[in-house]
Amino acid sequence: GDNTQQTVPLDSAMIGQLLVLASLLATTSAFASSPTDPCVASPPPTAPTAPHKKTAFIHVDIQKCFTNGPPKGIDDDYAYCNPPATGGTDNCTRLGSLGVAEGATIVPAVNDLRHSCLFEGVFRSQDYHPADHISFASRHFGETPFSFADGPLPFVGYPIELACTKNSTEEIKDVACCLVDAAQPACMIGANGTTVCTQDTDPENPACSACVGPDANCTKMMQGMWTDHCEQGGDSGFATGLEVNDDDVILQKGKNPHADAYSIFMDNPRLHYTPLNDMLREEGFEVLYIAGIAFDFCVYWTAIDAIHLGYEVYVVEDATASIGVPNGDNTTSVDTAKADMLLQGVKFVSTEEVLTSECPAGTENMWTYARNRRKSRRL
Description:
The chain has 10 helices and 10 strands.
């Protein structure tokens, strides 16, 4: 009547048999639970995907001052919206103080683009000039500076050499430029090759004294002469119909009366910086998609500066509008700008290509990102 269980000792042969049996049972179980044919080789492991690079959408100067519209039914926006000096007839509906042909037509594409899953932030630049800004032809050549208004300059955007100070702070608010050389070649276009320029002696402009003489520690650059445009008290607001969001970052440029900035990163001599690069770096952005006005000036300068600052840069070409200043050799500033961008490594894409791009895995929707990380601010 002893119910005590007896332990049977296992020798090495029995242990080996049990291990073989366990292996067979495991294999059978795997085959039974596998949804695939065990006779078919398993697919190779998936290659790891490249890590997502944080991407921003940059709006360059999509403002009322840069938009025009042709009459209904007119296909050739350029001919109607630009003055005769740049090959147009100036019959456009004159909406902007420096209206660009097709400027208003890019707004729908830009509105669609801002919702792309690629973007985790939207940054909008705003040309925001005080009266009598250094880039205004009227400051240097009177109220009718261009030839189509009987002025001395052959076309809008005509470049004149200015001398600019160099400031150790490297902040754009601390730089100044002045027209000090009235005998430069660009000025010698008057009757019989006489100068059309007058040396600027503005006592409020530090460059007008600091950049005079052979020992001046200044730099020189060619500055386009434009119509008075995008004034702070004028039509510098964002373009009609442009979709904006409270979380967008707005960078106002051209506020310094004595310095201009085509690029949203730095001044035209490329010596002094806006706050934007620091902000993008702080937030971890590596890739920039750029749209806006004008392709051959502010978009171009922004894209080139972004490349030099180390970003991967894409220009959404059909979401830009161009001015097309003549080069004098049957080409325009559009040809020059695109060739240089390609040479420097800028890539060109279309709106459709952006909107049909595959969404990066694990990326946040940009509105969620914006609400969590920052509120709208002006730089």
